[in-house]
Design goal:
This protein has 11 helices and 7 strands. It is α/β, with parallel strands linked by helices. The protein has a single domain, classed as NAD(P)-binding Rossmann-like Domain (Rossmann fold, 3-Layer(aba) Sandwich), CATH 3.40.50.720. Strands 3-2-1-4-5-6-7 form a 7-stranded parallel sheet, sandwiched between helices. α2 packs across α9 and α5 packs parallel to α6. The protein is globular and about 50 Å long. The N and C termini lie far apart (52 Å). Bound molecules: NADP nicotinamide-adenine-dinucleotide phosphate (NAP). NADP nicotinamide-adenine-dinucleotide phosphate binds next to α2 and α7.
Length: 269
């Protein structure tokens, strides 16, 4: 049995498993011998991934198609999670938008809070009770480098990711005495469907793209390698430098710089 399975098995719940970082988490956790519950809206994608996982690795993969912004999110997931011992929760589902706050539909802004903040809060409250009783487990919150700093054009998104970051850091302190490891994973630009959904054209990065972009594979490898050893994890040297700069500069200055940087990638300009 792998060390990860020993510490965080026998089941993991991965939200946002139909694409990007979440799909990569599901694969890498299953590879190490942990059964997975795959959560997202697109059932067909989840079923394809589940059958690939069961073909490749000797684990069970359940699909739990669900809209995590719905009011009754825990009740909807209960049939998939109610009868299993969950040792690892990966709160990965999330989306962003770009553009002036007032120009983006209020329901989209509200959904972002429901998906990026409310769903992880409810799932953590439901699932981590069992981990605390058993004295072992892990929770990963996928935050972002955006969580360290405000920015015009992504005001709400950055605020949701700051919530994930601070929630995770506080919980890590609370749960450490119970043997439950909590991580705030803070990736920078990662090659997924995220930018398309957020209306960001990362093609505008130009020849610097290979320097700026990190792969989902390397983000997940860093996360799983450091789980239990570090709480706040920023994958990639450039991202670490960026976070350090944001923390050292006066808040107003870093907000202005980060907003200017992001506005260069707004699609359609
Ligand atoms: N990519 C980056 O540059 C980057 C950087 C920093 C942080 N992040 C964070 O990383 C996390 C994963 O994003 P990603 O980059 O992997 O983006 P992605 O490829 O767009 O994946 C987003 C995932 O969230 C799921 N999702 C979206 N809305 C949902 C809903 N209402 N209910 C349930 N699931 C929903 C999507 O599945 P369905 O559409 O099938 O529901 C998909 O599986 C997010 O929290 C994001 O904020 C990304």
């Amino acid at each position: 049995m792998s060390k990860l399975a020993e510490r965080y098995g026998p089941w993991a719940v991965v939200t946002g498993a139909s694409a990007g970082i979440g799909a990569e988490f599901a694969l890498r956790v299953a590879e190490r011998g942990i059964n997975v519950v795959l959560v997202a809206r697109r059932r067909n994608r989840l079923e394809e991934l589940a059958s690939a996982i069961e073909d490749m690795y000797r684990v069970e993969a359940r699909v739990a198609p669900a809209d995590l912004t719905s009011r009754d999110v825990i009740e909807v997931l209960q049939p998939a999670i109610g009868d299993i011992e969950i040792g690892l929760l990966i709160n990965c589902a999330g989306f962003g938008s770009s553009g002036p706050f007032l120009d983006i539909d209020r329901s989209i802004q509200e959904s972002m809070i429901n998906l990026n903040c409310r769903a992880p809060l409810l799932l953590t409250h439901e699932i981590v009770q069992g981990m605390r009783e058993r004295g072992r487990g892990g929770v990963i919150f996928v935050s972002s480098v955006n969580g360290f700093c405000a920015a015009r054009g992504m005001a709400n998104y950055n605020a949701t990711k700051a919530y994930d970051l601070l929630f995770a850091e506080g919980l890590a302190e609370e749960l450490r005495p119970y043997g439950v490891d909590v991580q705030a994973l803070c990736p920078g630009a990662t090659m997924t469907e995220f930018h398309q959904v957020a209306g960001l054209d990362m093609g505008k990065v130009g020849p610097l793209a290979p320097l700026i972009y990190v792969s989902a594979a390397s983000v997940v490898a860093t996360s799983l390698r450091t789980l239990g050893r570090r709480v706040t994890v920023v994958p990639g040297v450039l991202n670490k430098l960026m976070v350090l700069t944001m923390r050292l500069a006066p808040r107003r200055v870093s907000t202005w710089i980060f907003g200017s940087l992001l506005s260069r990638f707004a699609a359609g300009d």
